[in-house]
Amino acid sequence: MIICETREELTNWRNNQLEVSLVPTMGALHDGHLSLIQEAKKHRGRSLVSIFVNPKQFGPNEDFDQYPRTLDADLKKCEDEGVDCVWIPKERGIYPEGVENAIGITVPDSLSKVLCGVSRPHFFDGVCTVVYRLLILSKATTAIFGEKDFQQLIILKKMVSDLMIPVTISGCPIVRETDGLAMSSRNRYLSSKERHNAATLYQALLTAKKELSEGINDISVIRSRLQSNCPQLTLDYLECVDHDTLELKQTCKNGDRLCVAAWCGQTRLIDNLMI
Predict the structure, then answer these.
(1) Do 52 and 105 reside in the same domain of the chain?
(2) Residue 122 catalytic?
(3) Contact between 221 and 253 (Cβ < 8 Å)
(4) CATH value at residue 246
(5) Does one domain contain both 144 and 205?
(6) What is the C-alpha to C-alpha distance for residues 152 and 112, in angstroms, rounded to an integer?
(7) Catalytic residue among 33, 43, 122, 196, which?
(8) What is the secondary structure of 64-107 as a DSSP string?
(9) Residue range 230-238: mean pLDDT, rounded
(10) What is the pLDDT of residues 84-135, one digit of tens each?
């Protein structure tokens, strides 16, 4: 396994590689990340994992400084998975003129001002800006993301299409704990009681899917019932969206996707489910 920190080192590594499958991460790797790495290993060419906590996607009152950083453990997991190269860029390697002076990508309101974008208005601009730079610098032919961040996945697919970047964005299914909680690096923030409460979110989504099959398809009714099924959580949003466009639906149907965000204590959980 090769470890790169600079663009020059990355260039040397990829010079003779025809295809590169990139797994962009912010570190604190868990089994969900490892499933993306395993998918990358199935592709031709070489697997590349980036570890970079991107300041541009954090708001002023968010957890950039507290975000878990577990580099030694991350490198061991990458080595165990047979990753060909781990890329740990410095901030100046991604933003040469500094984060505040970086020209960024602006995501259209139709995609960014719904779901997570309502409470995190600059998040997707920051995500697209860093992913664009990672793709350009790595010259990846494929980039692999998890479906837990479903809105992010759809936006990134549109970004590479609109900007004509020659890369395939591939989504992988959500990896869950045994009780259904979607794996996330931030789950480690949860206390034992909060961890128990957090698992009710996925169970409530499953209940909503079952009720849809029984004819309950009005999103306002589904939203009210889900909140009742998760009394320990504070609902940020529950929406039904078109699977391809993120268009909000008032009446749900098979093939749409339920997307949810809720607070468990001070930790924000997100999840989604195809219905």
Answers:
(1) yes
(2) no
(3) no
(4) 3.30.1300.10
(5) no
(6) 9
(7) 33
(8) TTTS---HHHHHHHHHHTT-SEEE---HHHH-TT-GGG------
(9) 97
(10) 999 999 999 999 999 999 999 999 999 999 999 999 999 999 999 999 999 9
